[in-house]
Amino acid sequence: MSKKQHQPAVGKKIANALKAYYRKNGCWNKGRKHTAQAKQNMSLGHIGLRRSKAGNKKHSESLKACYRRIGVSWNKGRKRSDEFKQKLSTANQGKVISAKQKAQISKAQKEHYRKYGSFHTGRKRSEETRRKMSAAQVGRTVSAAARRKMSLSHMGKKLSEETRQKMSLQRQGADHPNWRGGTSNEPYNASFNREFKAQIWKRDGFTCQICYKTGVALHVHHISYIKKDDRPENLTSLCISCHMKTNYNRDFWQAYFTYRIRRDYTPEASNSRQDIVRTARISKGAEVIRNDNPPSVH
Fold it and tell me: Which of 185, 204, 256, 281 is deepest in the core (most CB within 10 A)?
């Protein structure tokens, strides 16, 4: 037996002695500076080494015990050098996490959230970090399955009155994504009354001009989004749900309804189709205009 090896009983005594010292005084090598040569030797000594399942479990339990004892992660507040960050990034490139690992990570995060709240509560991010996070999300598409999961995760959650008030204040006036300079507060013409609207509904067969539902409550939509323009060719009948859709992708809806009105109510409409379709292609999804079919918007 070499000098560096110990019998199991002796090794256990050494481990217990180190643990007792740690509980009393902290880590024995905390603050110790290793030379570059020592770091290199340590790195080479660990190449190819893998912990056994039992070793991984012991390591995990020790980290959990440390977290429970001091209440925060052992590396909280630790500053990593740019070189170290680059090495971490390179080491993780191309790494694939298995479904089992993902499930374990998700379970651990949910358990942590139930006990301590969100990881990010009270955390302040720098402007540079926010810009990087924003740039990383540009062009990213969330799948239908992911959107469904996000929707289900929010079901049944009740926000406090304070939180609701904050969210409301953050989306008022010019801070709202649909802000149009206050045009929603402009009044309609006095002649734009129920009797006038009934004429438009009758013209359209009391049918929504997007989903083609009948027997539902209808609004009268201004195709040009100008409230004072009450010309019949600038008006169309929409149900409440479809009317909400027209607040988004306005260029497309304006071109689509303009084409529909010209086709259905103007004799010379047959020569205007190409211009209308060309205008509609300004917005993504405009190619859904096909003959008499409405756009497929969900």
Answer: 256
